[in-house]
Write a structure and sequence with these properties.
By secondary structure, the chain is α/β, with parallel strands linked by helices. The protein has a domain of about 160 residues: Rossmann fold (3-Layer(aba) Sandwich). The protein has 7 helices and 10 strands. The strands form 2 sheets. It has a 6-stranded mixed β-sheet, sandwiched between helices. α3 packs parallel to α5 and α4 runs antiparallel to α5. The longest helix is centred in the C-terminal third of the chain and has 18 residues.
């Protein structure tokens, strides 16, 4: 079976005034369906630029990114938007919940954006029970803790049953206890629903939750190894 994500020698160069600033320098790797891959590196390593390219939010300067066999470089902006709606769920460091909406409405807005008519209530219940927010669905963000808000954001990313979940520093705004809870639940949803997860983080301890860790520095991959803590626990879906 071909990998669900193929990254082939991608570069990204930003033009600042008259100077070209390389953010990515020939990055290549593959991700198999159902894998949980952590991408870790210090600030300025290129990991966030890579995240935006993998999510189809910006274009690489050169190279190819194939998602489920489809090449982002050959797509129009509209086609990339449709790809994101169909196949990718996003979780960000900032929860990005709409303050006037309840948790349930914040989750279901992802369905509206994707053009779907209403939630599968059974799946909504399953996801929110797994994430421990089923009893918070009538609450607004200001009535929830940071950890609860991030779990609602995770439920929003999962509700369309995307093939891929991209998480950008999902514990960056949380304390240690809530970080551990969110990471554990992100791992549980990966195993329960079989989605491929790529998590960007600067925190090596958070990165260890994955099946494999890709280390980046100065726009390049410096190592990519299976994490022994989770070896053999990959989803069989």
């Amino acid at each position: 079976m071909p990998p669900i994500i193929q990254v082939e020698n991608i570069t990204k160069v930003y033009r600042i005034g008259k100077v070209d600033v390389p953010a990515l320098r020939g990055v290549s790797f593959e991700v198999q369906k159902g894998e949980f891959v952590s991408i870790v590196g210090p600030s300025g390593s290129g990991k966030s630029t890579l995240f935006y390219i993998l999510g189809g939010l910006t274009r690489a300067t050169s190279g190819r990114v194939l998602v489920d066999g489809e090449d982002f470089a050959r797509m129009s902006d509209g086609q990339r938007t449709e790809m994101r709606k169909r196949k990718i769920g996003f979780v960000f460091q900032k929860f990005n919940l709409l303050p006037t909406l309840t948790a349930k409405d914040n989750i279901e807005i992802a369905l509206e954006i994707a053009g779907k008519n209403g939630a599968d209530n059974g799946f909504l219940e399953r996801v929110t029970q797994l994430l421990g927010v089923a009893d918070r669905l009538d609450h607004r963000p200001s009535e929830m803790s940071g950890g609860e808000q991030q779990r609602v954001a995770l439920a929003r990313a999962l509700i369309n049953r995307p093939a891929i979940v991209l998480a950008d520093e999902p514990t960056g705004n949380l304390d240690t206890k809530n970080s551990e809870i969110v990471l554990k639940m992100l791992r549980q949803t990966n195993q329960e629903f079989g989605q491929t997860v790529l998590m960007i983080t600067h925190n090596p301890a958070a990165a260890s939750i994955g099946d494999r860790i890709i280390h980046m520095r100065d726009g390049s991959i410096v190592s990519a190894a299976e994490d022994p803590l989770w070896a053999g626990t990959k989803s069989s879906n």
